[in-house]
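Is this the right way to post structure tokens for a design question? Let me know if I should format differently. Anyway, here goes:
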């Protein structure tokens, strides 16, 4: 053991060249050497010396929450890493890429992480030590989960309209359906609605992919914001008229022109207006108000829909999240629109806020710097 400790300087220099978090356990499961990536991963002071049990230094929830030494907590028997350590120490066998998902207390704060461990036995001076290589794959697992969620959503949201599309096309093959111009127009209108939904879904997916890949680029130019807002209101009035919903515009500020990306902000306003119409009952009002406040042009869109339950508010801008409130006319939703809106607004150094209660409607407010 003493010879091993004396050789730690060499060991530290060796591990310093490894980008993964690496640490060494002695035969009693105590950590005796670590590298800088290990300290960074588990929030340990760069100069702190320690020699304690594995789980206690890592901040494993099994040890911390039960105030036990590692291996003494009841849950430790279920720990796959503990099993890998025993395999290395007793059988001198390695375990590769063991996945562990657990809460760790980092700087006294609980953090859920997914870690990949490789455990290898090292024989030294008639004793067996364990070298552990740790990679934090939390973000990779989350990204993979988002991908699976996206693929599932695409399959679900495209399957239904495609089935409907096939059904409507089949109807056109029956001569009796073509004898009446009204029947024909109804079928063609339904076909168009299905195609629009599929196109919107694909647009949202492509926009979200650009944002997630970090390739979002703005092309800000000085533009007429009042003209943009007026145009978006007029476009959405065509849609709202089908539900007898009136969109009112109240432009109260003297600021008409400032620098923004016209395409991206059009997308923001259009999304908020279409959502307001989508979630409003027939015959209600949607109110758009534009004011200015402390260097910002402030645009609020308020509807008279069912509102957003309080439990949903904190998640409303998260990708793929769908509130328990449902559209009033059977309209579809991808769960990506508001996430895209938030990203586009923040890319302009602005912010978006929401206020709502069940049964009282919702108001989304966008602040854009001028």
């Amino acid at each position: 053991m003493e010879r091993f400790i004396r050789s730690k300087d060499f060991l530290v220099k060796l591990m310093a060249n490894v980008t993964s978090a690496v640490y060494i356990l002695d035969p009693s499961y105590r950590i005796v050497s670590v590298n800088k990536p290990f300290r960074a991963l588990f929030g340990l002071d760069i100069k702190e010396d320690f020699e304690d049990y594995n789980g206690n230094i890592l901040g494993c929830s099994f040890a911390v929450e039960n105030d036990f030494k590692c291996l003494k907590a009841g849950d430790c028997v279920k720990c796959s890493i503990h099993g890998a350590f025993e395999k290395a120490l007793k059988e001198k066998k390695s375990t590769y890429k063991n996945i562990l998902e657990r809460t760790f207390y980092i700087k006294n704060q609980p953090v859920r992480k997914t870690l990949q461990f490789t455990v290898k036995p090292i024989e030294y001076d008639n004793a067996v030590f364990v070298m552990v290589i740790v990679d934090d794959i939390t973000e990779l697992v989350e990204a993979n989960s988002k991908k699976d969620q996206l693929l599932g959503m695409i399959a679900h949201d495209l399957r239904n309209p495609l089935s409907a599309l096939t059904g409507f096309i089949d109807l056109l093959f029956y001569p009796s359906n073509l004898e009446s111009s009204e029947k024909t127009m109804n079928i063609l209108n339904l076909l168009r609605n299905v195609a629009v939904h599929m196109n919107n879904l694909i647009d949202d997916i492509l926009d979200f992919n650009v944002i997630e890949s970090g390739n979002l680029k703005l092309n800000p130019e000085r533009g007429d914001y009042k003209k943009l807002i007026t145009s978006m209101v007029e476009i959405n009035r065509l849609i709202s008229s089908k539900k007898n919903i009136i969109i009112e515009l109240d432009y109260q500020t003297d600021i008409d022109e400032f620098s923004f990306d016209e395409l991206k902000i059009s997308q923001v306003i259009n999304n908020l207006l279409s959502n307001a119409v989508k979630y409003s009952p027939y015959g209600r009002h949607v109110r758009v108000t534009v004011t200015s406040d402390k260097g910002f042009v402030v645009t609020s869109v308020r509807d008279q829909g069912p509102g957003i339950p309080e439990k949903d508010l904190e998640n409303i801008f998260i990708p793929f999240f769908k509130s328990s409130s449902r559209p009033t006319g059977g309209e579809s939703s991808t769960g990506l629109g508001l996430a895209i809106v938030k990203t586009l607004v923040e890319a302009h150094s602005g912010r978006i806020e929401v206020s709502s209660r069940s049964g009282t409607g919702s108001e989304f407010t966008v602040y854009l710097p001028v």
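Format looks fine. Someone answered above. Worth noting: The chain has three domains: 2-136, 137-215, 216-370. The CA atoms of residues 40 and 301 lie 44 Å apart.
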